[in-house]
Amino acid sequence: MSSGKKKSWRFEIDETRKQEGLIQIKRAVQEKKVRYYPSFLACLIEQLRYQTWSFWVLQGGMLVLALVLIRYLNLPGGDGEASITVCSLFMVLTGNVCLSGVSRLFSWHMAELEQTLYLNLRQMVSIQMLLAGMIDLAVLGLLVIFCGGRSGAGTGAYLLYMLVPFLWSDILYLHMLTALRGGLRGYRQLSAGVLSGILAVFPVFVEESYHLEYLMVWGIAAAVGVGVLILEIRRLFGKIEGGEVLCLN
């Protein structure tokens, strides 16, 4: 055998096919789900699936109480102005009860655990607010449809009279959720309920507050309430993202 170069038994590498294979591997890696992120709909279904029996009793109870209240207010000889106050107070109560699901997410030191898992705390709060809003709208719709005709101003004004204290009571509740820290959950709910109730019955002490000439004032209060409520929700979400509310209780 000649003393030239030793003959190599290795196959020559096909650079074109090598590059194609690397591209396919890279594409497969990008498509692979290393972590599982459930969709908003999947989280909503799971939230409904694992709600406690007390949650359903409370939500269903508010609807039943709304029907009882409607029946009572539609009895002969009822006072249309008094029904506005009663319905406003009931809407404030409904809003506080429904939002208690949001409060429970930050109670008993569970928020830290939820945030360390794949569960998205901000998404869970959004779902609880969505569920609360659905019940609130159902109750509000029933009251307006069946009791709104008792108001001389019509159903539109009746809706506005109930919407204003409802919006501001929700603002108060969410503000107190982040403002009061420590083991004050019961005190927070009680104080929010009392202050919201005072807010709902306040027009009774203002003469002619339900008259048409003050309807513009009610409209401005509702518009400002919507804006402040949006800001309060953004504030709550901002604190969640910053980790400030994980140890509220």
Question: What's the structural blueprint in terms of helices and strands?
Answer:
Layout: H1 15-31, H2 40-49, H3 53-73, H4 80-104, H5 111-116, H6 121-147, H7 155-179, H8 185-201, H9 215-242
Helix pairs in contact: 2-6, 3-4, 3-6, 4-6, 4-7, 4-8, 6-7, 7-8, 7-9
Model description:
71% of the residues lie in helices and 0% in strands. It is built from nine helices and no strands. With 249 residues, it is mainly alpha-helical.
Task: Determine the strand fraction and express it as a percent band.
Answer: under 5%
Given as residue ranges, the uncertain stretches (5+ residues, pLDDT < 50) are: none
Shape descriptor: elongated
N-end to C-end Cα span: 87 Å
Helix count, per DSSP?
9
**Succession of helices and strands:** HHHHHHHHH
Summarize model confidence as the mean pLDDT.
77
Name the assembly state: single chain
Largest sheet: none
Question: Which structural class best describes the helix and strand composition?
Answer: mainly alpha
Q: What Rg is obtained from the alpha carbons, in whole angstroms?
A: 29 Å
Question: What is the strand tally?
Answer: 0
Helix content: over 70%
